[in-house]
Amino acid sequence: MSDALSSAKIRTWRSPASESLGAKIGIMTMAVVYLTLIIVLPLVAVLTEAFRNGFETYVEALSDPDAMAAIRLTLLVAGIAVPLNLVFGVAASWAIAKFEFKGKAFLITLIDLPFSVSPVISGLVYVLLFGSSSVLGPWLKENGVEVLFAVPGIVLATVFVTFPFVARELIPLMQEQGTSEEEAAITLGANGWQTFFRVTLPNIKWGLLYGVLLCNARAMGEFGAVSVVSGHIRGVTTTMPLHVEILYNEYNLAGAFAVASLLALLALFTLVVRTVLEIWFSHGIAGGNGSH
What we know:
The protein is an all-alpha fold.
């Protein structure tokens, strides 16, 4: 009797991957429709509106002095924030993955903090720290140091919201690789810098590039934190996302969608490069496994 029940259970069990063709088509259709509604259509709408009045109008909108200032400021802020987060991300992931120390869990929690805190709140924190009514405010004013409503404040806010990206890409990668190769290099006489550049860095290069790419995309597209600390001084402290908001509120839809299209193209570029990096990274892992 028990053998018959076991045989029946075996016959009725099936793998989750062996669904019927109709079920597979239905699930894939739902995914495609959802992604089309949420991602593809808005992206197409932005690009369509950007070029609705012709290419000359599009170029004219991007050539506007305020738009050019916003683009330059966005590139400047990303050019400062991304390298800072690159150094911090590598150092933090190295410490967490390669060493055991007290407060390790707390450090990981701090790295994840920007993921759980609203960017607007992080911007308000800098207002409390560097505003005119703060403890540092009078000293900053006396010495002519401008943090809020200036580039330093925008950079600080951008660094805060983007610093987890590099570290969060490298930590699991370094933990998976372990410390055996570094220990072997040190045993053979390599110092710390030689071990990092010749052993660790080649092993994490694709994950590092992936993290930098995501960090850069977020830095250029950040709105909430930058909006709080920038002061919205047109042509001076407005980044591309803030400039889009200003133009939209002024009903300058052609200019707003022109600048927004640059951000949309950045998202597409990020997606393409991310896919390429993932393919190269997976091939690198497969090649490395096959060589052993």
